[in-house]
Design brief:
This protein is mainly alpha-helical and about 400 residues long. It has one domain. The chain has 13 helices and five strands. Helix 8 crosses helix 13 and helix 12 runs antiparallel to helix 13.
Amino acid sequence: MTTTLDDNSTTTSHPAWLGWVSSPDTRGTMNIIWSCVSTLVVCLYYMLHLYVPAPDDSYWTRFWRKARWAFLGLLAPELPMLFACGQWASANRSVLSMQALGHHEWSIEHAFYADSGGFVVDFRGYDLLLVSSAKQLEYLVRNGYIAMPSLTCDDIRDKSRADGMSKLVICVQAGWLVLQVLGRAVQRLAITPLELATLSVVGCSFTTLWFWRRKPLDVGEPTIITTSYTIADVLAGAGEAAKETFVDTPLEFIEPEAYISRKRRALQAKPMRRIPNDRDPQASSLAQHVSLGVSTAAFASIHLAAWNAEFPSRWEQVFWRANCLVMWVLLAVYGTGEVVVCYREGYSKMGLDTLGAYKRRWPDCLWFFVPAGMYLATRLGLLFESVWSLRSLPEDAFATVNWEDYLPHV
């Protein structure tokens, strides 16, 4: 109740009471930014499935490692998708190999867990040794050096910090932005470059999460396997194949690892205590490489939706178009290089090093590093323009989607 004084008389006025009030049909710049940033955080940070950390890694070490990879995913959202596809293919190969040995309880969850550094072996007279791939674990089991791990799928899920429902909630949150963009397109409302850039990341993230849907997330500690054998017994049993000095682990003769930043690895302690997240397992067939190329091209094409969009200035529109075209050309060059390597080296000795090794050989590495460097530059240009264009947008960019148009009317 309020009291007002009018012509020396006191009157009493009551506040107005309203019924159902519709939401405002406009949005602000901060609404656009918050919607995109929150979606990017979900897609780039919380969807990221890194390998098992080293035992002595602190919380902040793990946090900043994940933050660095999230930032890399912002610059090149296709990169986590490529890694996820390779890890998925490697896990499927492991399932087939283990089941061929008669271990039908070995599932893709087990394979993902093993490929993530989930097992360490306590050899007699030796420190805990990291088993850096499911193929190394298979070798030790096949030759009787260790017993088949009794870990169940439920045990692995207990170690994971996200279940299916958590991943579904993340998908729903990211999917809301997709619906917003689609609704704006149908109602012919302006879509900002920042929303398009975010949409391309969402598309890559959904594909990445599909490959990682059965991979445990943020496992804190590995599972210890004990054995009465020594590491010398394993090396002696391998013969000539294990006589070379190892780079990362004594078990690397089983399957050579392929890393993008091999030189930096030389500075780490030996044997390594965790699997570096730039390990590059390969897809299992040419068809998988082609499908990845098509997916990557499709997500890159999302930026082309702003080809005729209004920008604050003419040069910014030209800048956007030029970066889109250059990005397409670079993807074509890199994709061609991958296909050529697949054809030249074949899949007869498929492993982590079979196809990824060309990225460390001169001059073959130029097919990877030159397009990759230029691609990052174009991505930075598109990201810069996505943010910079927010200073001046068309009027209908601030109009909201009228969802009532899609509701049934009686």
